[in-house]
Amino acid sequence: MKVLANDGISQSGINALNDAGIEVITTTVAQEQLSNYINAHHIDVLLVRSATKVRKDLIDSCPGLKVIGRGGVGMDNIDVEYAQSKGLKVINTPAASSQSVAELVFAHLFGGVRFLHDANRNMPLDGDSKFNALKKNYANGNELRGKTLGIVGFGRIGREVAKIALGVGMKVIASDMFIDKATIKVDFFDGQSVDFEINTIPMDELLNQSDFITLHVPAQEDYVIGEKQFGQMKDGVGIVNAARGGVISEVALIHALESGKVAFAGLDTFESEPTPSVHVLMNGRISLTPHIGAATNEAQDRIGTELASQIVSILKN
Ligand SMILES: NC(=O)c1ccc[n+]([C@@H]2O[C@H](COP(=O)([O-])OP(=O)(O)OC[C@H]3O[C@@H](n4cnc5c(N)ncnc54)[C@H](O)[C@@H]3O)[C@@H](O)[C@H]2O)c1
Predict the structure, then answer these.
(1) Residue 7, phi-psi category: left (phi > 0), alpha (psi -120 to 50), beta (remainder)
(2) Which atom of ligand 1 sits closest to the CA of residue 72?
(3) Annotated catalytic residue, options 244, 285, 302, 306
(4) Which residue of 49, 108, 216, 229 sits with most ligand 1 atoms within 8 Å of its CB, as the best mutation to test the pocket?
(5) Cα–Cα distance measured from residue 266 to residue 263, given in angstroms and rounded to the nearest whole number
(6) Residue of 309, 317, 301 lying closest to 9 (CA atoms)
(7) In this predicted model, what pLDDT tens digit does every residue of 155-193 receive, in sequence order?
(8) What spacing in Å lies between the alpha carbon of 201 and ligand 1's midpoint?
(9) How far apart are the C-alpha atoms of 38 and 208, rounded to whole Å?
């Protein structure tokens, strides 16, 4: 049995597969050579992240392939239904990176309320000559404790965000098209835990009650946050999008930042990845990360071992 992990896999995943007698190849094969490689090396399982595309033509030209695995959540790069119609199993690891994304959201929020994104741009330039002016510029910070966090999309990541927010002492409100309520279990280091029941509320209410808003919905056809929704928010709100580019209108966001409606934004995902708009990149009120929500060593370990255990159970049964 052979696995080609074309976009890489953690060592823990390789070990788990090797222990089950499955060979793992971690060569990155160019997209146009992939079908030849898979057929020539008798690959049973193709593992990808977001870089490698697994479209109909590849599926058709690799009849020996049994499993397609995506390390992570989104399957936009795989023709899932077509693969399944051809008898292939398609697997992913939806929960493995939720906590990592949630922590990144808080990196943006904690950074945003103390202007770290802007201070990190200006300190290297003016920190030695205009220290006191910069100190004054960044003097009006805010605390998160006691503020209201609005979570749009109360699925896996939204709930992990809620756990951190509750730990920080924030009021948590949430809105979800399909979920009415959820019990959030906040675990502490010593084994204690506290359960919070949170009922979701309509989006309009969330928009006008939140001091900070974070989005955790899947990609969809229309913007979830556009001009109209920005208009419904409190003045000086902070907003984070670590979901998908296109969930927030970037044009409407820039307007809202310029008018002062939005105090700061944290973006991990962009409408035009991998070439985000220069208006977004150059805006000093936006805290920027290049789609690294899931990119922690812990998440990569969980992704690897979760994929390995699914592959072992499919191939060995
Ligand atoms: N930044 C990153 O690196 C990164 C990593 C992993 C996942 N993600 C993204 O995070 C998002 C959430 O992932 P998840 O695992 O929590 O998904 P999930 O399916 O567990 O949760 C999504 C929730 O959004 C709700 N929803 C859908 N449309 C909605 C709408 N218009 N308004 C309100 N609620 C709506 C759904 O009912 C669901 O409960 C996805 O877009 C995923 O692609 C980003």
Answers:
(1) alpha
(2) 6
(3) 244
(4) 216
(5) 11
(6) 301
(7) 999 999 999 999 999 999 999 999 999 999 999 999 999
(8) 17
(9) 53
